[in-house]
Amino acid sequence: MDRMIIKNFGEHVLTENEFTESEPAGRLSQFISVLGQPLRRVSLYLPMLAGPVAMCVAMVYCRNAGTGPGGEQALNDWASTCELYAPLILTVALAIYWGKAIFTRNLTYVVLGVLVGVLLLRELHWKPETEDAISIKDAVFPLLGICFAWMLIWLWWGIIDKPADNWLHTIFFYGAIVTYAFGQFVEKRLFKFIPDEGTFHTQFEESIECAGHCLIFLAALLGSWKRRKIIIKGMDE
After folding, report:
1. pLDDT tops 80 at residue 39
2. Which of 62, 66, 69, 224 has its CA 20 to 30 A from that of 194?
3. What SS3 class is residue 188?
């Protein structure tokens, strides 16, 4: 009978022979784990490049299609297409977040569903009834601030996921935040040193916003679908 070794893997206790045979697999797993750490860090930054990439794509298109015959119409069509699909992308992302909140019972998706709902309201471009009234575009930043404060408080209390607990969601969600921030820099004309930036400004801005919406959609879709068990203390007492 094989001598037992105190080495637990889950609920199974390996015998000496089993442990010896598993050594190469263990070394391989360790190697993959060590190699995976830098790759994991790189994966966090890759989606953050979506904004500059979207701006470069828009620049190439605008320079080619926007300078020839019918160039002005081509530029208008590009901006109109982005404005058309932007709310549709956010609507689908919102539906996924609320569907996942109901299915998984994960309160993280409740907060994010509200946040995406605020972004969707901004994207619908609702105009105030009077000139003195506050538009949704002006109100979106305080509302987003409230959502992020809510998220940080629940994160501090351990109610919602930590970033490392839902990594695929984290990398795309962080990428979306950076992309939206980059879009604000473009809106404030911080890149006016780029040739013809004034002509293509709207196309740049709309393209970057669409890229951010796509990252939000990917975060919603690829985030964890693991169901949670809700335990209310005191119910059994």
Report:
1. no
2. 69
3. coil
Which residue has tokens 């693991």? 226
Kindly report the number of other CB atoms within 10 A of residue 178's CB atom.
18
Nearest partner of 207 among 193, 227, 187, 188, judged by Cα: 187
Task: Write down the residue that tokens 């930036």 correspond to.
Answer: 197
φ, ψ of residue 9 to 5 degrees: the values are -125, 95
Angle (CA) 134-140-143 rounded to 5° is 110
Q: What pLDDT, on a 0 to 100 scale, did the predictor assign at position 139? A: 64
Residue range 111-131: average pLDDT? 77
**What tokens appear for 90 in the block?**
């956010």
Percent of the chain with pLDDT over 90: 24
Mean pLDDT of 160-179: 87
pLDDT for res 90: 93
Nearest to 61 by CA among 74, 70, 51: 74
How many CB atoms neighbour CB 134 within 10 A?
9
Residue 84 CA to residue 71 CA, distance in Å, equals 20
Q: Collapsing DSSP states into helix, strand and coil, what is residue 6?
A: strand
Taking the C-alpha atoms of residue 63 and residue 189, their distance in angstroms, rounded to an integer, is 19
Count of other CB atoms within 10 angstroms of residue 167: 16
Mean residue pLDDT across the chain: 77
Asked whether 57 and 207 are in contact (CB, 8 A), the reply is yes
Is the predicted pLDDT of residue 66 greater than 80, yes or no? Answer: no
Q: How far apart are CA 228 and CA 207, in angstroms?
A: 37
The angle at the Cα of 141, spanning 138 to 142, to the nearest 5 degrees, equals 100
Nearest of 46, 35, 81 to residue 218 by alpha carbon: 46
Determine contact, residues 96/129, Cβ cutoff 8 Å: no
